[in-house]
Amino acid sequence: MMTPGAMQRILATVRRAGLTLPLAAAAGCNPNLDVDGALVPAWLTAAVIGIVGAVVARMLFMRWGVDRHLWARPAVYLSVAVTVSCMAWVLLFRY
C-alpha cells in the first residue's frame, strides 16, 4: 500500500515527464536534405536505407539457408530494418 506522499511524488514525476517528453521529441525535428531543390527529411532517408538493408538481409538469409530456421520472421526483419536505419542515421547524418 502506498502512502499519500509517495503517490504525490509519482504523480509529480509523471507530470514532469509529460511536459519534458514532447519537448525532447521535438528537439531534432528539422534535419532536412536538399535533393534537387526539394527538402527531404533525413529520417525518411534513413528509413528507406533501413528497408533496403532488411531486403538485402532477407536475400542473404535465404541464400545461406538461415531464413527457414527463423520462427519470428517479421520481428527479425523489422529489427534488421530498425538497426540499419539507426546505423545509417548515426553514420551518415550525425544529427
What does this structure look like?
- This protein has 95 residues and is mainly alpha-helical.
- It has two domains: 29 residues; 65 residues, no CATH class.
- The protein contains three helices and two strands, in the order H-E-E-H-H.
- It has a two-stranded antiparallel sheet.
- Strand 1 and strand 2 form a beta hairpin.
- Helix 2 packs across helix 3.
- The longest helix has 23 residues.
- It is flat.
- The termini are far apart.
What's a concise summary of this model?
With 95 residues, this protein is mostly helical. The protein is built from three helices and two strands, in the order H-E-E-H-H.
Secondary structure blueprint with pairings:
Layout: H1 4-26, E1 32-35, E2 38-41, H2 42-64, H3 73-93
Antiparallel strand pairs: 1-2
Helix pairs in contact: 2-3
Task: Label this structure with key terms.
95 residues; mainly alpha; 2 domains; two-stranded antiparallel sheet; 71% helix; flat
Structural class: mainly alpha
N-to-C order of helices and strands: HEEHH
- Oligomeric description of these chains: single chain
Determine the fraction of residues in helical runs and give it as a percent range: over 70%
Which strand-content bin applies to the residues? 5-15%
Radius of gyration: 20 Å
* Main sheet: strand order: 1-2
Number of helices: 3
Biggest sheet architecture: 2 strands, antiparallel
The tally of beta strands, per DSSP, is 2
Ranges where pLDDT stays below 50 over 5 or more residues in a row are: none
**Shape, please?**
flat
Count of the domains: 2
Average pLDDT value?
Answer: 80
